[in-house]
Amino acid sequence: MELSSEDIDDLKALGREVAERQRAPHEPHCVALAFATPIEGALRFTIQQWIDLEAIRSPLLRGEDFGDPEQLRLAGHIFGLSIDSETVTSDEADACVDAMRAVITDAFAMSLPMKPPGETDTADADGFGDWLLIYSCLVKECGIDPDAALHTEVARAFALIAGVRHNQGWRVAGGMRYALRDIPAMVEEPEAAHE
Questions:
Q1: Distance (Å, whole) CA 160 – CA 96
Q2: Which residues pair with 136 in a beta bridge?
Q3: Quick one: the chain helix, strand, coil %, rounded to 5?
């Protein structure tokens, strides 16, 4: 495949932007948002909410549709929303589901796969769920009080753990580095940027 001069110019511009973001004096925007003061009335997704959604086997955690109105009502309750089929219209319920999905998706997007120095292989699945590993790391490695860790926002938890791991000598194992997430071309077409 032969690249046009316009394609080459676009790649050069992307390369410059990537280099600038890697050396930027500010924290990456996604990290700053994870630690910013929550906007009043905005949904938050905490470790406790993750546990509560897992306990009811909420389809929200798997990107699936709700088949049961009671499960939707329970998920709404976990987020402090009243989603009762008798008082909420279908459009209002859909908007609530979209908002819950968005806050969960944004939080999980902050997960940054890392590996310790010298490790190349990944471990086999050991039967633990993800939230327990995140929670225990917050308590043990980040030194957060167990009760406070339950109320830590999930996006913030992932960023904290990545920071602790980095300070321990771990490096990014895969996925999009935080600094590159501010670059629209990297976010919109991550595969194309790596080719």
A1: 28
A2: none
A3: 55, 5, 40
Q: How far apart, in whole angstroms, are the C-alpha atoms of residue 63 and residue 102?
A: 10
Confirm if 185 and 14 have CB atoms less than 8 A apart: yes
Question: What are 41's two structure tokens?
Answer: 């009335």
């769920």: which residue's tokens? Answer: 129
pTM of the model: 0.73
Question: Cβ distance 161 to 115 under 8 Å?
Answer: no
Neighbours of 141 (CB within 10 A): 13
Q: What does the pLDDT look like over 48-107, one tens digit per residue? A: 999 999 999 999 999 899 888 899 999 999 999 999 878 888 899 999 999 999 999 999
Structural contact between residues 101 and 60, judged by C-beta atoms closer than 8 angstroms: yes
Contact 100, 79 (CB under 8 A): yes
